[in-house]
Give the backbone structure.
Amino acid sequence: MENENTGVDISAINEKIQKESAFVDLLTNEMNKVIVGQKHMIDRLLIGLLGQGHILLEGVPGLAKTLAINTLSKAVQGSFSRIQFTPDLLPADVVGTMIYNIKENDFSIKKGPIFANFVLADEINRAPAKVQSALLEAMQEKQVTIGDETFILDKPFLVMATQNPVEQEGTYPLPEAQVDRFMLKTVIDYPKMDEEQLVVRANLSGSFANVNPVVSTTQILSAQAAVRDVYMDEKIEKYILNLVFATRYPEQYNLKDLKPLISFGASPRGSINLATAAKCYAFIKRRGYVVPEDVRAVVYDVLRHRVGITYEAEAENITSVDIINKIVNEIEVP
């Protein structure tokens, strides 16, 4: 099966992706041993990992956010570290610092918890701006400078930051420009009743399965490269751009009523991440090409934090998700 216009051999790509993505089921099954339900969160973690992006998770306490990334780091043979953000945290507590060694009369470097494959930044909105920007710089540049030495962070490198939507007291909300650094913002909800029943049972009986490493970091790096080969037709690219441009110029897309509700639209980073996330989603579904459903599956997580709403929208109780919903329903699917 060859695409006439581009001469791309889709069946060959498909075959390659099916081989490369064989570990996805292994990984998901391993995570499901410990995490009941929360399929959406697990999928999004894999998209972040494969797309070399980072994830901002929002949800009330106790929804297995910490457990999820810890389980992922065990199932992939990677190192895991957790940083609990507090108002008195310093940038050095995240990236590391220079320590004076009296014996040797010299400084040595003590690396911080950011040096791991999987980093959980718990309650990122509790730390002051300086600490947030130290973490975000490491996420963006994939490197850290301590003193006058620069260290490249290990690959794969996935940051999952959590924020608690419940309390605003003593928190420092992330600025819009910094939230944009996250590939996905995923909101997770309470589990269903039958799922929670299983969670309660497992906790009371202490019968948690052991998570075994089923994937190596080398396999993940090879999968990250393979994701780039997933075929995306020009029509799908156009569809992605239309969705993003509709957040900036809704009046051009027959959505005049959204104009007063949007304070700013998605950035070019939004388009890049939407395309990458759609490719990752196709990869997880073990397909070598992107279909419009892949884009629609990830559009809310990619754009939710990239569309600013005005006071007028807030007054009418309209959220960025409502706006994205209208756009998705209006833009023609290829």
